[in-house]
Amino acid sequence: MMKMRKTLFAIAAGLSLAAAAGMAISQTPPQKATVDAAKVQGVVGEQGDGFLGFVSGSSDPTLQAAVTAINTARAALYAETASKTGTTAEAAGQATARQLYDRIPAGQWYRPLGGSWMRK
Question: Where are the domains of the chain?
Fold first, then answer.
């Protein structure tokens, strides 16, 4: 248990360092606005793996492209963090998800690993 906490701390520190070094998740303002609106509408939510997911299906190509772009950038950040902290990209994504869950506004959706979508 103690080793897991140390690993999660190292991952969180690595993610913080990456963001501070300008390697934060790259997204355009329109992509962020599109995804933020979809989160408020309950169409998109945060997942336990650190990626965005669709709570309900969407046929909006702009939204789908924005989610794909953000998830692609997140995957790159998790891989980079993993290489710097000696863990896996999956563990980095999961550590990020835990941090994101604390910041999800009331009424928005999230899905824990292995779970179903839940409204905060």
Answer: 2-119
